[in-house]
């Protein structure tokens, strides 16, 4: 009985107050950020939200070490980018250690102001099981839609990263981890807005 209970408590879906159940994590490449995150790094599966003060302030730099580690593995799956605000520059990614040949870019329809096509594409990528990580830049997403994305990421054993504007921080979200990002010389300032057992104070990170 005790052994069965112990195994049950280790399930990643169970939250035990300040002591969250252990989950598989991947180092962010930033020791200070690893220390602040529950489990000591990015989760391997599920959906997280990163909320920059505006797109392009350095939010992608938080993920570059993890992207490099994921895409360089012999058994690496795809790393999908859905509706990025700028086209990824392969030489710059390669210089950061990311394998460009494992990057899959999905551009949204220009006339789709509400982002429905990007939302649909992101969910398919998460659910497919073909991706280690899928990133999406969406300005509009309802809580029920984010819940679907989280379930899709768990089903596909994929880490989903949803980038949304900082002003959406007050909106309800089913994501287990929400991080705000803003510029701060000489890098960025990260604030954990929502986490299960993680730090609450701001974390200063150097530029990459």
Structure summarized in a few sentences:
With 208 residues, the chain is an alpha/beta fold. It is built from 6 helices and 10 strands; from the N terminus they run H-E-H-E-E-H-E-H-E-H-E-H-E-E-E-E.
The CATH superfamily is: P-loop containing nucleotide triphosphate hydrolases
Largest beta-sheet characterization: 8 strands, mixed
Report strand %: 25-35%
CATH architect. name? 3-Layer(aba) Sandwich
Task: Look at the helices and sheets and give the structural class.
Answer: alpha/beta
Helical amount:
25-40%
Mass-distribution shape = globular
Strand order within the widest beta sheet? 5-4-6-7-3-8-9-10
The sequence of SSEs as H and E is HEHEEHEHEHEHEEEE
Question: How would the blueprint of this fold be written?
Answer:
Layout: H1 2-9, E1 25-26, H2 31-36, E2 42-43, E3 46-52, H3 64-71, E4 78-82, H4 90-95, E5 103-106, H5 116-128, E6 131-137, H6 143-155, E7 159-163, E8 177-184, E9 187-194, E10 202-206
Parallel strand pairs: 3-7, 3-8, 4-5, 4-6, 6-7
Antiparallel strand pairs: 1-2, 8-9, 9-10
Helix pairs in contact: 5-6
């Amino acid at each position: 009985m005790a052994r069965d209970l112990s195994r049950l408590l280790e399930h990643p879906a169970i939250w035990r107050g300040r002591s969250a159940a252990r989950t598989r994590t991947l180092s962010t490449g930033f020791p200070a950020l690893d220390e602040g995150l529950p489990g000591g790094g990015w989760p391997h599966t599920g959906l997280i939200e990163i909320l920059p003060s505006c797109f392009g302030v350095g939010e992608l730099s938080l993920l570059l070490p993890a992207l490099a580690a994921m895409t360089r593995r012999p058994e690496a799956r795809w790393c999908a980018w859905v509706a990025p605000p700028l086209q990824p520059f392969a030489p710059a990614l390669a210089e950061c250690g990311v394998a460009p040949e494992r990057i899959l870019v999905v551009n949204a329809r220009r006339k789709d102001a509400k982002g429905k096509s990007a939302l649909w594409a992101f969910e398919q990528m998460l659910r497919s099981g073909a991706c280690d990580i899928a990133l999406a830049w969406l300005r509009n997403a309802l809580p029920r839609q984010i819940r679907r994305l989280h379930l899709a990421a768990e089903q596909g054993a994929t880490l989903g990263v949803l980038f949304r504007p900082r002003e959406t921080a007050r909106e309800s979200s089913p994501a287990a981890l929400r991080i705000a990002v803003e510029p701060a010389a000489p890098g960025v300032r990260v604030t954990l807005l929502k986490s299960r057992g993680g730090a609450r104070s701001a974390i200063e990170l150097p530029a990459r």
